[in-house]
Amino acid sequence: MVEEVAKSLPMELSEKGGVENNGFVQNEAFDDKETDTSSQEEMPKTCIVVDPAATEEPVLKPYAGMPKEVLLKFSSQARYRVTREILFWLIIAAAIVLVCATIAIIALSPKCLDWWQASPIYQIYPRSFKDSNMDGNGDLKGIQEKLDHITYLNIKTIWITSFYKSPLKGLGYGAEDFYDIDPMFGSMNDFENLLAAIHDRGLKVIMDLIPNHTSDKHRWFQLSRNRTGKYTDYYVWQDCTQAAGSVTPPNNWVSVFGNSSWQFDDVRKQCYFHQFGKEQPDLNFHNLAVQQEIHVRKDGTNLETYSQLYHDYTTTQVGMHDIIRSFRQTMNQFSSEPGRYRFMGSDGDENIEATMIYYGTTFIQEADFPFNFNLINMKNLSGNSIFEAVNLWMKNMPAEKWPNWAVGSPNTARISSRIGKEYVNVMNMLLLTLPGTPVTYYGEEIGMENIASENVSEDFPEKSPMQWDGKVNAGFTEGNSTWLPVNSDYQSVNVEVGICICDKLMV
Length: 507
Ligand SMILES: [Ca+2]
Fold this sequence. Notes:
The chain has three domains: 2-76, no CATH class; 121-219 and 287-462, TIM Barrel, CATH 3.20.20.80; 225-273, Oligo-1,6-glucosidase, domain 2 (Alpha-Beta Complex), CATH 3.90.400.10. The protein is of the alpha/beta class. It has helices spanning 2-15, 28-31, 52-56, 68-75, 78-108, 115-118, 140-145, 147-152, 188-200, 219-225, 288-299, 320-333, 352-356, 383-396, 415-418, 424-433, 495-506, and strands spanning 121-124, 157-160, 164-165, 177-181, 204-209, 237-238, 241-243, 246-248, 262-265, 270-273, 304-307, 345-346, 369-370, 404-406, 437-441. The strands form five sheets. A six-stranded parallel β-sheet has the order 11-5-2-1-15-14. A three-stranded antiparallel β-sheet has the order 6-10-9, with no helix packed on it. It is extended. The structure holds calcium ion (CA). Calcium ion binds next to loops. Keywords: Glycoprotein, Membrane, Transmembrane, Transmembrane helix. Pfam families: Alpha-amylase. InterPro entries: GH, GH13_cat_dom, O16G_dom_2. Residues 24-43 are annotated as: Disordered.
């Protein structure tokens, strides 16, 4: 059929006297023609010369609008079929190569760093950072005023030490109310403004959550000592004997301050457990209701939260890590939006193996990292001691986990006082070059020193007011006094001087 059509085509064109055919030719036009191109006798009388080549080697090319039958005949020809198959397999091969290459690139590429990995963490002790209302105590508005300093340092993560309502003004530990802010630091409105300002600058904030204990002024404790409903077992109560005015505790456990960790309560006539001061009764974390209370607190915030569990007591108890895992699960429920991952750090342990357990496992996550104080705890400074401190962490850290390094904290002497002024820059440089997240403490970037111990109690020498400039009170407050004395070196060691030196170095 195709051949017949092909043979008749030149004739048809001839008969139409050269009328141009643009390819849209109906089959019916060919059906009636039984043309024998080899017979000159049956040539039409118009005497049109037929090209012999066209008649001897008829070639029909595909044309637009050809019917399905014709198309199928063309498509089954070897040259089209083979070409089609080659193209088909080339596409399959290319797709496989593309998928393999994508998998390989993903597998071999370093993971994108999350926000808590990509920036140093800058820890602020809020009472000492900046005072905004001239009362001599740093506050939340003060932190907001000084956010430029944080961005100047190119730091993206601020860790603000506890500012919950607390009767322990200096320590900030032992919340009277997990739901409120201590008036010394400002109001909830101030906090919301600070949070908005922090987020406007693309920064993140980490807050303390210290669920181990509360203040004895806390409403829960007041309800518990009166055996009120579910609060009865919110704390660790035990019978103890009282005779001749002296109390015999349930056992010989001692608090971190060295005295008995049990305190007799006159209201309930029982002893409660406290691993810190007697004003800081430990919560009973074996009580599910207590765990839920703490979770509710975190649900109600949009914060990246740092959970600090003091666990000298609880670490020996079965279920300590179950509680941390449950915290992590709660935080994961609020981490589903892109870029809203909730970070959780934890305190470590004196024992490196026990510390590493806080990382969790590949399948059961706990903290993103336990804070690493190896560089702070070095007994002396030398190449070997640094190597040992770094190696201790890196060798023990579980695979696929993320390291971190701290050079300062509210509970340790400052670099200048611990190691020496001349090593401040070296330690800061070391901090920024080690693999993992650097953690620093306000004032370490300019080499602040502890204040003289005769001026303060032993808890506070590294908490002196931030030294902003060489003006009165180092620019910390415009009031007449400061809650702790400003270090006497503030005219030579302050942020303004530090920035000048830094800018000159960069020029
Ligand atoms: Ca203030």
